[in-house]
């Protein structure tokens, strides 16, 4: 379980997180929604220990995230970044196997390649893709490679940062479905940040709405349509009018 308790983070005068409290039970898929610049990425970075909160606590299975060995800690996470973020100079399989070829649990090259090919297959790519370079792939294929890389080391927790940005609606739907299937079959805990309500409905068990530095609402994905919270209502219907200011 991931637990954030009263987490604060400011950058200079800008108070981004102002007391974020959130629980993500093990094996659940939590999607965080909220407008641009509300601090969704900062919250994920705090969990990963890439940004240090000013106050509050964050634990993974009861252990503070800023204690213990960094390599061992990060080995428990998989991440799919916006735009896939592949390394241009590495082949597809080397991208997928990136973590397997480094760190405390480094594997021999042949074994890492075999795992990479198996993960590529899982995301719908053939073994022939393995020796191509990212620039030779379409955006949708690159996203699949990013997903294969995120799951390569069988992580306990997977973070998805805007997983469908830049994809057409059909490809976005395919990636959403793939994410959902993989998270369920791995039994992984997933945290996703997105603006895309189609992703929310496809991926989430639970949804949390971040606004003004706090979690304004949290509930199950089934509850979201009937929830009366004006922030959630404005967000899910994409209305310019409402408590969330459209000018930022
Ligand atoms: N390292 C940093 N230094 C200074 N300001 C930062 C830093 N990281 C984030 N911020 C600021 O914190 C705010 C929240 O940023 P964040 O990237 O978390 O937003 P977000 O909710 O993920 O937005 P988006 O949906 O647009 O990606 C922004 O105003 C951003 O400029």
TrEMBL record:
Superkingdom, taxonomy of origin: Bacteria
Keyword annotations of the record: ATP-binding, Nucleotide-binding, Transport
SMART domains to which the protein is assigned, alphabetical: AAA
Keyword Ribonucleoprotein attributed: no
GO molecular function terms attached to this record: ATP binding; ATP hydrolysis activity
Keyword Nucleotide-binding tagged: yes
SUPFAM superfamilies attached to this UniProt entry: P-loop containing nucleoside triphosphate hydrolases
InterPro entries: AAA+_ATPase, ABC_transporter-like_ATP-bd, ABC_transporter-like_CS, P-loop_NTPase
Residues covered by the ABC transporter domain: 2-237
PANTHER family: PROTEIN TRIGALACTOSYLDIACYLGLYCEROL 3, CHLOROPLASTIC
Protein name in UniProt: Phospholipid/cholesterol/gamma-HCH transport system ATP-binding protein
Annotated organism of origin: Aliiruegeria lutimaris
């Amino acid at each position: 379980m991931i637990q954030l308790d009263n987490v604060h983070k400011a950058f200079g005068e800008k108070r981004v997180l102002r007391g974020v409290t959130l629980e993500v039970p093990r094996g659940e898929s939590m999607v965080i929604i909220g407008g641009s610049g509300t601090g969704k990425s900062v919250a994920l970075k705090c969990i990963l220990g890439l940004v240090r909160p000013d106050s509050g606590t964050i634990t993974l299975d009861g252990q503070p995230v800023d204690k213990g060995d960094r390599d061992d800690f990060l080995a428990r996470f998989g991440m799919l970044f916006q735009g896939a973020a592949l390394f241009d100079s590495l082949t597809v399989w080397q991208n997928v196997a990136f973590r397997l070829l480094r760190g405390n649990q480094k594997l021999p090259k042949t074994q890492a390649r075999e795992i990479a090919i198996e993960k590529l297959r899982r995301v719908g790519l053939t073994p022939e893709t393995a020796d191509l370079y990212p620039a030779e792939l379409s955006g949708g294929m690159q996203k699949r490679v990013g997903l294969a890389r995120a799951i390569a080391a069988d992580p306990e927790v997977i973070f998805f940062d805007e997983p469908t940005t830049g994809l057409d609606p059909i490809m976005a739907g395919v990636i959403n479905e793939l994410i959902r299937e993989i998270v369920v079959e791995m039994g992984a805990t997933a945290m996703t940040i997105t603006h895309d309500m189609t992703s929310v409905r496809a991926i989430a068990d639970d949804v949390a709405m971040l606004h003004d530095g706090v979690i304004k609402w949290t509930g199950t994905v089934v509850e979201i349509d009937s929830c009366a919270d004006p922030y959630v209502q404005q967000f899910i219907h994409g209305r310019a009018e409402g408590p969330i200011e459209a000018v930022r």
